[in-house]
Write a structure and sequence with these properties.
Elements: E1 35-40, H1 45-49, H2 53-59, E2 63-70, H3 84-103, E3 109-116, E4 119-126, E5 132-139, H4 153-158, H5 179-193, E6 197-201, H6 213-225, E7 231-235, H7 249-263, H8 273-279
Parallel strand pairs: 1-2, 1-6, 2-5, 6-7
Antiparallel strand pairs: 3-4, 4-5
Helix pairs in contact: 3-7, 5-6
């Protein structure tokens, strides 16, 4: 699948445009060993909250698999007349374009499908660097009131291990899926890709501040699915907004540009001070706290 590369920036940079560094800035040291699995709720969570850690891995040629559990359609088509399916697919285009830029590769991807239990997932592989893969599961976004049972589909699935709650996937025809189906899917992906490191957002966020419940549910599914010998790195999500800026200027601008490339495809992210705040920060979860789901 060929997708046009978009590199125009949509908001001012702190550095002059000519001085914005390319992804090569992040590539010192060569490709690390192992496979790095990221599990995110939405396309953009990885760019906003796991980066520049993640961007550095991609730029160095590491083997990475990023799984997006929801389609990220949110309220497109509810609060406006934007087709929700088109919006979900646009967000996929956005993350593909951003990853290709960071990898220093053409924005050309090979699309395939993998059946994992009762769920068929899309796997996109970067043609020039096949160690970079994106997996789109397509469950309903937590903000979508059209999902079975209304809003909070992923959270309700996580909270019901007995399987009384079931939800249909948003992007593809599938059976009504339960907690066990999602967990089996995650375990199948783990068996196939055999990660050495798992990145997630905060599975147990602090009571101060507001975290997206999809972030929490996605992290808990992932943590439950991976073997005990997989290293886990968890990141703060929405709750980093009031914290001090902690990225140096160059790393900040590389992250800003990667997100700007994605942002060209996301009409709901064209503005908003929250995005700018998240781009300037990255906080790993405090190491002395438990990460048990």
């Amino acid at each position: 699948m060929a997708v046009a590369v978009v590199v125009a920036l949509v908001f001012p940079l702190v550095l002059p445009l000519a001085c914005v560094p390319g992804p090569a800035f992040l590539s010192a040291g060569g490709a690390p060993d192992g496979l790095y699995l990221q599990v995110a709720a939405h396309p953009d969570d990885d760019l906003l909250f796991m980066s520049p850690d993640l961007l550095g891995l991609v730029a160095r040629g590491a083997r990475t698999v990023t799984v997006y559990l929801t389609a990220g359609e949110s309220v497109a088509g509810v609060s406006d007349d934007h087709p929700p399916r088109r919006y979900a697919l646009d967000r996929q285009k956005g993350v593909r374009a951003a990853y290709a830029w960071v990898a220093g590769a053409r924005d050309r991807w090979r699309r395939s499908f993998m059946t994992t239990g009762r769920i068929s997932v899309e796997v996109d592989t970067l043609e020039d660097l096949p160690g970079v893969r994106l997996v789109f599961v397509g469950l309903p976004d937590g903000g979508d009131p059209r999902a079975d049972g209304g809003r909070g589909a992923l959270t309700r699935l996580w909270a019901d291990p007995e399987g009384r709650t079931c939800v249909h996937a948003f992007l593809r025809r599938a059976a009504c899926l339960t907690h066990r189906d999602v967990l089996d899917m995650m375990r199948s992906l783990t068996d196939v890709f055999r990660p050495t490191v798992l990145r997630v957002l905060d599975p147990d966020p602090p009571s101060v501040g507001v975290e997206h419940p999809d972030h929490v549910a996605a992290a808990r599914f992932a943590l439950t699915a991976v073997p005990a010998d997989v290293e886990v790195i968890a990141y703060r999500g929405y709750t980093i907004q009031p914290l001090p800026v902690n990225l140096d200027p160059v790393a900040r601008e590389v992250k800003r540009k990667a997100f700007a490339i994605y942002r060209q495809h996301d009409y709901r992210a064209v503005s908003g001070h929250r995005y700018d705040a998240w781009v300037e920060r990255m906080y790993r979860r405090w190491p002395d706290e438990s990460i048990a789901p």
